Amino acid sequence: MRPPANANDPWAGRRAAYELLRRSRPSTDGYEAMATNRYPADDAAGEIYLLHFSERTTQGRQHYLGWSRNAEARLAQHRSGRGAGETKKAVAEGLRLTQAQTWKGTPLLERRLKEWSRKGWKGFAGICPLCSKEDALPPDLASALGPPSLRVRHQHAA
Ligand SMILES: [Zn+2]
After folding, report:
1. Among 31, 62, 71, 136, whose CB has the most other CB atoms within 10 angstroms?
2. Where are the beta strands (DSSP E) in 72-117?
3. Is the pLDDT of residue 141 over 60?
């Protein structure tokens, strides 16, 4: 009688150990979803969004600028503490996250906006409708970004 097919398989033990390790890990759905969005193409279509925190974090941050294919879904992730490090900290400190602005745009444009905001003394507050009544964007960025989606809604909110 022939032995079972895997009896002499030198890798069977290793595969079994790997399978056990794989199963012992928590669900990776969320992580994989993030991982696939981690390095989007520079010209990927999506939304650039600005989050405003109800107070400053202990690190003095009150805004977060991000890009996502789906800003609403991403906001839910941020609010649940599964977003970026800065929003995670804000949530842990009990702060509320408000989506203050969105623009249609690419990851490249988001980086340009981030770089520009870092140079100014106002930072992201200068482009946040909840913090600033002026739209401080330079003309080239303003035309590249197109009209902000929430201009009307927040016009009198501050
Ligand atoms: Zn703000």
Report:
1. 71
2. 97-105
3. yes
Inter-CA distances, 96 with 47, 90, 102, Å: 21, 8, 17
**Residue 107 alpha carbon to ligand 1 centre in Å:** 21
Residue 150's identity, in one-letter code, is: L
Query: What per-residue confidence (pLDDT) applies to 90?
Result: 97
Banded pLDDT at 21 (limits 50, 70, 90)? low
Output the CA 14–ligand 1 centroid distance in Å.
Answer: 54
Is 34 among the domain residues?
Answer: no
**What residue numbers bound the domain in which 117 lies?**
43-154
pLDDT at position 74 is 94
Residue 18 domain-assigned? no
63 Cα: distance to centroid of ligand 1 (angstroms): 6
Please give the tally of structural domains in the chain: 1
For the whole model, what pTM was predicted? 0.71
Average pLDDT over residues 14-29: 58
